[in-house]
Amino acid sequence: MNHRIRAREVRVINAATNEQLGIMRLQDALRKAEEMGLDLVEVAANANPPVCRIVDFGKYRYELAKQEKDKKANTSKVKEVKFRVNIDNHDYLTKIRHAEEFLDKGNKLKVQLQFRGRQMAHQELGMAVVLRVKDDLATMGHVDMEPKLVGRAINMVLSPLPANKRKRRFAALGYEPEDDSAEPDDDAEE
Question: Do the domains spanning 2-72 and 78-172 agree at the CATH topology level?
């Protein structure tokens, strides 16, 4: 900034009008900035000659801080939804709606199905639930990590599709998809 710039010649840009003033000697560029009541700030030191802008340094720092804050705000988080092997259809739909909501907000989604006790003997049932989740969320996200058994759980990671390609299937209240499996009879519980 100003007298700390070490180059002999600099390419000068007026930030107010965004026009290039050309290549000048450093003293001429500093004089021009002082005439305007602004600062000469080096923005591209590696260029040949270095690029400097005539700006109000306080406003320039504020704009840079604002850009950094926006970059940090756009980082995606990893949200997690947990399932069980014998999950009820209503609970399943509630969790799928939450998963769609997370993907719609641009977050990654980790799907985890946990086995308890002797459920490990029927891992294929757990894999079927995870594959059903994968199919139901296909319109909202794509699979980064395929379903994989890790210890007593099956894990899968999904990333959101681009915003213009996402279609929520379970968002509407009262919407029930066709259930492929036959529901057990009430008489069978006796």
Answer: no
Q: Extract the tokens encoding 102.
A: 């997370």
Taking only Cα atoms into account, the Rg of the chain, rounded to an integer number of angstroms, comes to 29
Distance from chain centroid for Cα 134: 20
Please state whether 150 falls in left (phi above 0), alpha (psi between -120 and 50) or beta: beta
List the CATH code of the domain at 2-72.
Answer: 3.10.20.80
Amino acid at 163: A
Q: What is the CATH number of domain 78-172?
A: 3.30.110.10
Give SS3 for 80: strand
Q: How many residues are present in the chain?
A: 190
H-run or E-run covering 24: strand 19-25
Pure H helices in the chain: 26-36, 57-73, 89-104, 123-136
pTM: 0.54
Return the bridge partners of 81, or none: 111
In tens, the pLDDT along 4-30 reads 888 888 888 887 788 888 888 888 888
Of the candidates 155, 153, 81, the one whose C-alpha atom is nearest the C-alpha of residue 114 is: 153
Domain boundaries, the chain: 2-72, 78-172
170: nearest Cα among 110, 99, 105, 108: 99
